[in-house]
From TrEMBL:
It holds the Pfam family ABC_tran. This is ABC transporter ATP-binding protein. Keywords: ATP-binding, Nucleotide-binding, Transport. SUPFAM superfamilies: P-loop containing nucleoside triphosphate hydrolases. The keyword ATP-binding applies. The lineage of its organism: Bacteria, Pseudomonadati, Bacteroidota, Flavobacteriia, Flavobacteriales. InterPro entries: AAA+_ATPase, ABC_SmlMolc_Importer, ABC_transporter-like_ATP-bd, ABC_transporter-like_CS, P-loop_NTPase. One of its GO terms (molecular function) is ATP binding. It comes from the Bacteria.
Length: 303
């Protein structure tokens, strides 16, 4: 189990994280979300041991994670971190990057393991390509495979699929997160993308104003977002009479006391997102088809 206890941290004078407490069990997938600059990457780096803590402690099982003041080499064998920078060896092949930390004394196992990892990140065709000749998304996939090579006990992922195209993203997410579950590897993912979270995270931790403002199962946070900041992570939403409603909870009907004037329609695949003005504020609703600008609509709210 990972335990983060009373952690506070600042770069120079500005405090970034204050009194952070949480735990992650073995095999659990925790997503960290929050606005840009809320401290997600900093928290991952602290857990990895990249900086010395000012206050608080971090433990993996009963080993205390310590920063550079206490360790000549940053990091621990049981933990891997895939940063936004990847840190790959550019003039070396994909295969050798992935196998970098695998033992040379067992060449057959090393080859099998590398092939299995190439398959997970779907880079079999690039095994002998030098990393410098890969696209950003391909490099990101190499970095993920390399982090998995020695089966860490806990994996820290910072925006792990941000460079990967939409054609591959969903398959890759399933491959990686299912692999982690089958191997009981704990995982902490910092992300802006709800698709990295819904369907994969056991819990979501929300950072805001230096603190944890929520920690709950994705289903619970989605159903009861409590704050506009949380709702905005999932979908377009409205605040009506101090309650939060997603766009799909407002239904256009023939007759209602609730009236709005359409301003814009946006195609979003499954339906259209309708932007309309209601009592001087902009609201968002879903509809099966687009609606002309300035048309008056009536809507009801369904919980
Ligand atoms: N090395 C550093 N030195 C000084 N300040 C830093 C450093 N790294 C980050 N910060 C600051 O700390 C705060 C938190 O940054 P961090 O990168 O952890 O946020 P984040 O939530 O991961 O952001 P994003 O979602 O944009 O990646 C920001 O205000 C940032 O400017």
């Amino acid at each position: 189990m990972l335990q983060v206890k009373k952690l506070s941290f600042s770069y120079a004078k500005d405090i970034v994280l204050k009194d952070i407490n949480f735990t992650v069990n073995s095999g659990e997938n925790l997503a960290i979300i929050g606005k840009s600059g809320s401290g997600k990457s900093t928290l991952l780096k602290l857990i990895f041991g990249e900086y010395d803590l000012e206050q608080g402690q971090i433990f993996w099982k009963n080993i205390e994670i310590l920063g550079p003041k206490h360790n000549l080499v940053i990091g621990y064998d049981f933990m891997k971190y895939v940063s936004q920078e990847f840190d790959l060896m550019p003039y070396t092949s994909v295969k050798n990057n992935i196998g970098k930390h695998l033992s040379r004394f067992y060449p057959e196992e090393k080859e099998q393991r590398t092939q299995a990892l190439l398959k997970i990140v779907e880079l079999e065709d690039f095994a002998t390509t030098k990393v410098k000749n890969l696209s950003g998304g391909q490099k990101q996939r190499v970095a993920i495979a390399r982090a998995l090579a020695n089966e860490p006990e806990i994996l820290l992922l910072d925006e792990p699929f941000s460079h990967i195209d939409n054609f591959k993203k969903q398959t890759l997410r399933r491959n990686v997160f299912n692999y982690l579950k089958t191997k009981n590897i704990s995982c902490i993912v910092a992300t802006h993308d709800k698709n990295d979270v819904l369907g994969f995270a056991d819990e979501i931790l929300v950072l805001n104003s230096k603190k944890i403002i929520a920690k709950d199962k994705p289903q619970e946070l989605y159903k009861n977002p409590r704050l506009p900041l949380i709702a905005s992570f999932f979908e377009e939403f409205n605040v009506i009479k101090n309650k939060i409603y997603y766009a799909h909870q407002l239904k256009i009907v023939e007759h209602s006391d609730l009236k709005a004037t359409v301003k814009q329609s946006y195609f979003n695949g499954n339906s259209w997102l309708i932007e309309a003005e209601h009592n001087g504020t902009i609201i968002y609703l879903n509809n099966n088809e687009s609606i002309n600008q300035e048309e008056v609509i009536y809507f009801k709210i369904s919980d």
